[in-house]
Hints:
The protein is mainly alpha-helical. Helices cover 45% and strands 5% of the residues. The protein contains seven helices and three strands; from the N terminus they run αααααβββαα. A hairpin with a 4-residue loop joins strand 1 (112-113) and strand 2. Helix 1 (8-20) packs antiparallel against helix 2 and helix 4 packs antiparallel against helix 6 (138-148). The longest helix is centred in the N-terminal third of the chain and has 20 residues, at 24-43.
Amino acid sequence: xxxxxxHRRDVHRVLDPIKxxxxxxxxxxxxxxxxxxxxxxxxxxxxxxxxxxxxQEDDAGKPRERFLEDHEIAALWPALDTLKRPVALxxxxxxxxxxxIGEVCGMTxxxxxxxxxxxxxxxxxxxxxxxxxxPLSGMALELIEEARRTxxxxxxxxxxxxxxxxxxxxxxxxxxxxxxxFVAHDL
Length: 187
């Protein structure tokens, strides 16, 4: 569709399916990007108006308040083994280290100092853009050792956060896990 023919309803056609699948934060990000794209195009004389200009974001982007309770983690831990092994390892490592799933999925052997039991996450891979050292428990070290056996080019978990999210969505939809209504971020 030519950019000059785009209307506010077209923006909603993009955003509504994202919201309906339960990803309001992603919808907000897409909305922000679309609005910026239209502003960029207007500055170059492509369209005459920004169809997203008068639109408001639906909400202020409240952070999730869900987190797993101890009894939920106890029930979930063994059930994770019913998932594909890389997915289970990623989720267990997120629990064992307290790190975001994106950082866990990007873990490389070069970031690990196993002699000191520390994982050094570089600033460029950290959400807050600050490098930090994560102390590794015995349990985390065991999980890392298992993941190292199937590492590809030094990357321990050969999955993306999106793949992990899809696996959890599938597991929830098919009642494969004893804990309901959680995402990897809640770990």
